[in-house]
Design a protein that fits this description.
There is one protein chain. By secondary structure, the protein is mainly alpha-helical. Helix 7 runs parallel beside helix 13 and helix 9 packs antiparallel against helix 10. The strands form three sheets. Strands 1-2 form a two-stranded antiparallel ribbon. Strands 3-4 form a two-stranded antiparallel ribbon.
Length: 326
């Protein structure tokens, strides 16, 4: 089942990206790649293809196997709500405070269908009992993961590439811990994300838009919750969470990119990126990476991948510890 869903999602998304990108370009839905000297116009909102590929492959799995029906429906509904919120933000703009609040709504299907366990498992402790608190924390968890991934898209390919790494870690941890739904959902999501990364990697031919980054982030949160991989997911997403913390603490709250007084990095004449040292420039993980000096955009992306691989390794070791203390 997992192999089928992965393959179907990958192929569908891979075939859809060029068509959706061409459509977005015709409609004028393009974004300027500000980290390139020639500032090319790149089709936006193409992350929609991840949602389309995911939904189609999920429908195929449900028709063929009828396994995890309630869980698949809750997962797809969560992603679709997040995608709708992201699309509205891309087209109309929701404001920095409304977006995270609305993203809490994407967790409603998980709550209504009861596809979660209020007994998260921790090393040395085992299963805990959070019957009252867990449902209250669940919407916050999905909002955090979705907005963290939305903020963690500083250069070409980083959001989609690091998401693929995190999904691989969640998949492997699900196999180790015997979490069937975590395995099924991780495989279902990994195919479309990898296909999108092929086009989104440096130099990007497509941008995801909020419709892509918010839906992928919400999917990660849903997998972590529904697969009982809470601690593994927190460790795996540490670079993205730290990046969001740096941004929010340095600007004093939630702000839109367009309203920031300064960008965190600046483009040099030779095409390299350098940290913006002005006091009003927000602190980001990219700016910290550039503290040692200017780098090419691809080098920055590779540094993000290395950091996520390292946190992913720590996350898998965490899963090993949980497995050892079951």
């Amino acid at each position: 089942m997992t192999v089928t869903s992965f393959t179907a999602g990958f192929l569908l998304t891979f075939l859809l990206v060029p068509k959706v990108a061409a459509y977005m370009r015709r409609k004028g839905m393009v974004g300027v790649d500000v980290h390139k000297p020639d500032r090319p116009a790149i089709p936006e909102m193409v992350g929609l293809t991840v949602v389309l590929g995911l939904t189609a492959s999920a429908a195929l799995v449900l028709v063929l196997w009828q396994a995890y029906t309630r869980e698949f429906l809750a997962f797809i509904a969560t992603v679709l709500i997040a995608a709708a919120i992201g699309a509205i933000d891309d087209l109309k703009g929701l404001g920095p405070k409304a977006k995270p609040l609305l993203m809490m709504l994407s967790s409603v299907p998980i709550l209504l269908l009861g596809t979660y366990s209020p007994h998260p498992v921790f090393p040395f402790v085992g299963a805990t009992r959070l019957t009252i608190v867990y449902p209250l924390l669940l919407p916050v968890a999905v909002a955090v993961t979705s907005n963290a991934m939305n903020m963690a898209d500083p250069v070409n390919g980083v959001m989609s590439g690091t998401s693929a790494i995190i999904l691989t870690v969640l998949l492997g941890s699900s196999v180790l811990l015997g979490r069937g739904i975590g395995l099924a959902l991780s495989g279902l999501m990994l195919g479309p994300v990898l296909a999108f990364f092929w086009y989104n990697r440096y130099p990007s031919r497509v941008f995801s838009g909020d419709v892509g980054s918010l839906s992928i982030g919400a999917a990660l949160g849903a997998i972590v919750v529904m697969g009982q991989l809470e601690l593994v997911g927190i460790v795996a997403m540490m670079p993205q969470v730290m990046n969001a913390f740096y941004i929010l603490s340095s600007v004093g709250g939630l702000l839109e990119h367009s309203t920031l007084p300064e960008r965190p990095v600046r483009l040099l004449p030779d095409g390299r990126l350098d940290a913006n040292l002005k006091p009003e420039a927000p602190m980001t993980l990219t700016r910290i990476i550039l503290a040692r000096g200017p780098r090419r955009e691809k080098e920055i992306a590779n540094e993000f991948f290395r950091l996520t691989l390292f946190s992913g390794l720590l996350a898998f070791l965490t899963a090993l510890v949980i497995w050892g203390f079951r």
